[in-house]
Amino acid sequence: MSSLPPFVTTLDLKLAEKLLKDLQQQGFSITIPAYTRFSASKKGLTCTLYTSGKLVVQGKEQAHFIEFYLEPEILESFGFSHPTTKIDLTPHIGIDESGKGDFFGPLCIAGVYIQANQFSKLQALGVKDSKTLSDKTIRQLASQIKNLCLYHIVKINPAKYNEIYQDFKNLNHLLAWGHATTIEQLILQSGCQTVIVDQFADEKVVLLALKRKKLDVNLTQRHRAEDDLAVAAASILARQAFIDGLEQLSKEIQIPLPKGSSSATQKAGKEVLRKWGEERLRSICKQHFKTLDAILGKVGK
User: Fold this and answer.
1) What sign does the dihedral 44-77-108-190 (CA atoms) show?
2) What is the dihedral of CA 216, 217, 221, 225, to 10 degrees?
3) What is the DSSP string of the chain?
4) Which residues lie closer than 8 Å to 282 by C-beta, 6 or more apart?
5) How is the beta sheet containing 54-58 ordered, strand by strand?
6) CA angle 233, 100, 129 (to 5 degrees)
7) 97 annotated ligand binder
8) Cβ(27)–Cβ(42) below 8 Å
9) Beta bridge partners of residue 30, listed in sequence order
10) Average pLDDT by consecutive 10-residue portion of the chain (301 residues)?
11) Phi, psi at residue 54, to the nearest 5°?
12) Which residues does UniProt call coiled coil?
């Protein structure tokens, strides 16, 4: 049995058909108990929609289901996976990245230094984890953050990314280098040595990268650190740099390039290959992704 309490919310019944169809595609078994529109279940998870619109999700797998499907695809709100941003009033640097899971576009690492008198201002602006914000809002907030705080962004465009990756042979080591470089620059600007990082690998990976730069840092690494205001601000700057970079590449090749690494990504990649050739395709993507092999292997078949 799950030790987690059931997740309960209210759903607009206009979305019931989409939810049902999605759950069927995800392999849920469907029944229709009394007073429900349906109840869907599979190992570790049950999702029940009542005729009143009450939606109940329970089971040991509920957190992943809610965070990665229900909230972004159905509810379009993020109260479960991204609760209210925490306010730590100690001046510190927050670091986050964007683009590591995206086939097209740059890898961007951003850092933001927040002083004590800036926390309330950022909170009033609505700064929070970029994953909960639209691209339009991200761009608006990024401009305001840059006007208010010290920041640094490491933007690694695909051609440079592929070159550096050949040296590191490991994405986490490349990310650690980018994090350490960002931290180094913000320490030089601010003098602050207290840093919070959204953890992406074993703690030793970033610590080693900092050691190589001879940086003495009071470092905290933790998962989902975007609940810290400085990290949330950094996530916005990193995301803004990424979406701007992706948009610029799309304009250059006159083909809309999607985020992520999905079937839509492969479709766009095949179009780039047909229109511009393999060399140009390689110059705008992260070549170690298996997506590239899929694109090159399927084109022409």
Assistant:
1) negative
2) -150
3) ---SPPEEEE--GGGHHHHHHHHHHTT-EEE--TTEEEEEEETTEEEEEETTSEEEEESTTHHHHIIIIIIIIII---TTTS-SPB---S-EEEEEEE-TT-SBS-EEEEEEEE-GGGHHHHHHHT---GGGS-HHHHHHHHHHHHHHSEEEEEEE-HHHHHHHHHHH-SHHHHHHHHHHHHHHHHHHHH---EEEEE--S-HHHHHHHHHHTT---EEEEETTGGGBHHHHHHHHHHHHHHHHHHHHHHHHHTSPPPSSSSHHHHHHHHHHHHHH-HHHHHHTB-TTSHHHHHHHHHTT-
4) 162, 292
5) 7-10, 54-58, 45-50, 36-42, 29-31
6) 25
7) yes
8) yes
9) 40
10) 79 93 94 96 96 95 88 74 61 95 96 89 85 90 96 96 91 94 95 92 91 92 87 96 97 95 93 95 94 79 45
11) -70, 130
12) none
Residue 128: per-residue pLDDT: 87
Could you tell me if 236 and 138 are in contact, meaning their C-beta atoms sit under 8 angstroms apart?
Answer: yes
Largest CA distance in the chain: 66
Asked whether residue 135 is marked as a ligand-binding residue, the answer is no
Closest alpha carbon to 114 in 154, 146, 140, 155 = 146
227 has binding-site annotation: no
For the four alpha carbons of 228, 231, 236 and 237, in that order, the dihedral sign comes to positive
- Are 220 and 195 in contact, with CB atoms under 8 Å apart? yes
Residue with tokens 């840092």: 217
Residue type, 264: A
* Per-residue tokens: 192: 């602050």
Look at the chain and count its residues.
Answer: 301
Rounded to two decimals, the pTM is 0.70
Q: How far apart are CA 222 and CA 200, in angstroms?
A: 8
User: pLDDT at position 152, please?
Assistant: 97
